[in-house]
Structures are given as C-alpha cells and as structure tokens.
Amino acid sequence: MSATMSYKTTSNCLKASTVALLMLFFQPLVAQKNFNGLTQQLTEQQKNFGNDFAVLLATPDTIVYQKEFGAMKVKTVAPIASASKWLTAALVLQFVDEGKLSLDDKVAKYLPVFEKYGKNYITIRHCLSHLTGIKSEGSILERLRERRKYNTLDEEVAAFAAHEIKTNPGTAFEYNEIGLNIAARVLEVVSKKRFDMLIKQKLFNPLGMRQTTFTTTDGSAPNPSGGARSTAMDYMAFLKMLLNNGKHNGQQILSEASIAELRKIQTANLPMNDAPKAAAGFQYALGAWVLESNGGMATVLASPGLFGTWPAVDFCRKYAFLFFTKDLLGEQKRGVYEDLKKLTDTNFPNGCK
Fold it and tell me: Is 14 a domain residue?
C-alpha cells in the first residue's frame, strides 16, 4: 500500500471514529431532551404521587429513561398489589408452553373439590380473566384479613370451591382474587411445588428478578393475585421480556404464541362487574387490562396495583412504561397516569398505523 493510500485510509478512519464518538456523546443528551416534558410533569405532580416513586422507560433493547424521586429508588422493594396478576398469568403460560396444561382445561381436572361443588365448567382461562362466576364475599379489605387464616393455597382455594356461583362461568367479569389464586393452585398440583417457590424458579430467576417474591412474612398462604413484592428494576425485566416476544438475554422465557394469548381480549361484549374505577371502561386480557386494542388484540396492556404501581407495555410503539411506588393509589390519579403515557407516546412512533 502506498503512503498516500495509507494516509487517506487512516484519515477516513479518524473521521469515522470522531463522528461515532460525537454520536455517542450527544445520544443521552438528545434522549434527555426528548423526555423533558415527562420529567417536568413528574416533578410538578410529585406531591400528588406521594413524593416517593421511580419511573422507568425501556425499549426492547435498553432502559432509555430512569428517574427516582424522594426515598424510592429503582432497587427499593415494595408491594405491587394487583400488578402481581400479570406475573402469575405468565407463569401459567409457561406451563402451557411445556404442554403440561391447556388454558381451556377444566379446573376440576386438577382440583376435584370443584367437581364436588358442581363447578365443573370453570376453566383455567376463566380463572385468568376473572370469569369464574364464583361469588366473592365481603369487601377487599375484609377478604385480605380473612385470607391470613389460610396457611396454604390449597386451604384457600377449597374455600372458594364452596362459594356460591353468581353467574355462569364465562358470562360476566368480576374483579377479585379468586380466579388467579385457583390457577396458581392448579400449578402447585401439576408441579408438586409451592407457588412462591415455583414462580421464583421458573420466572424470577431466569429474568434476574432476585428481589421479587410472593413469600409472605407471616407464614400465611402466598397470594398470587396481589401478594408480590418487587423493585422497579426487577419488574421492568419482566416487561421487557413481554416486549421482546418472550425473550430475555437470548432465552425464550415465553413462546410468541403465549405472548399472543396474553394479548387476547377475553371480555368482549360481557358485563364488567366490580371493575375498579381506575380501570373503568377497559377490557381485560389474561392478568392485565387492555388500554388500547386492534382486532381483538391488545396493543397496550397494563396491570395497575392498589399501592400505585402502574406497569404498561405498548406493543405498537415498542416501549415499556413503569411507574413504581408504595403509596396507596388514589382513584383520581388515573388521569395523571394517562397524561404521563401520552407525553411518553410522543417519543415513539406508532408502528401499527
């Protein structure tokens, strides 16, 4: 190679390297500028959110936004209430992927006590979409106090089997803890393992969710519908897996078919009874609410919890959103969460249009 050719090659490489370095330098600045409106809104609403919270945004590849307010950090452990349901539904779909059960299997196939009480037609799908038709007894706070007397899911679910039927299975939605906990008990029977240990082994450990658990501190039965404790960083790993069609670090945690099942609307044209105000007007899929949809499939799913945690996955704009806190959710905050998402949407093109 001539000296002239060598000089030109070196010069071009230096130019390319300089451009690449400049791009890397400006990338975080551009990203921060894009989310200035979101940061401003969060700052202005900090008192309304209880002062202590964290917000994460992620694309399929990386976390693109991270903010911590007050004492809440992205690795602070806190109860996530109904955001637990999404985790339990995903675990059920792992068993479906492995051919160990079907969503349309009758619960009585695994739990004979349901046949004893004439509840032969309830399916696992009904359980994950609040369509069992089993009547819940008492207020949510009364039910939470009541369940502390159970040492195992087996005891609690046997009590559910004895409840009255309010509506025929699959004909009306009623939001409560009954269905998810029944489905979790089915998994215990199939695997011969306690639910909290099972979900740690099959879902949390592969996703690196080391600080997430359903194990109770008082020795009572785990609550698959609302008893998980987690961190913002842990839960975002789960959301990114959903956004990546079931993959995490190259490992297929859930099949693409199961991700599609999680997105199917289960409650179309059905009465929506006892839905929380924060979800009024939304349809339901499996373990999560449908915020936006197209052709019977959710394009945006969310699983808000009583304590204020609000996780969402937008499959069209290809991002996951997580507002994480431990303060009780005020019903009036739904509009604020929706405003936060609208601000976020402006940074991501809608790939479904």
Answer: no
CATH number assigned to the domain comprising residue 189? 3.40.710.10
Say if 351 falls within a structural domain.
Answer: no
Distances (CA, A) of 129 to 103, 133, 284: 11, 11, 7
Note the pLDDT tens digit of each residue in 63-95.
999 999 999 999 999 999 999 999 999 999 999
Contact 208, 137 (CB under 8 A): no
The count of other CB atoms within 10 Å of the CB of residue 52 is 19
For 246, the domain range is 39-345
In a domain, residue 288? The reply is yes
Closest to 289 in 3D by CA, of 352, 260, 300, 19: 300
**Cα 7 from Cα 13, distance rounded (Å):** 10
Chain segment 171-218, per-residue pLDDT in tens: 999 999 999 999 999 999 999 999 999 999 999 999 999 999 999 998
105-115 in b/e burial notation, b at 16+ Cβ within 10 A?
Answer: ebbbbbbebbe
In a domain, 20, yes or no: no
The packing angle between helices 84-97 and 256-263, to 10°, is 140
Specify the pTM.
0.89
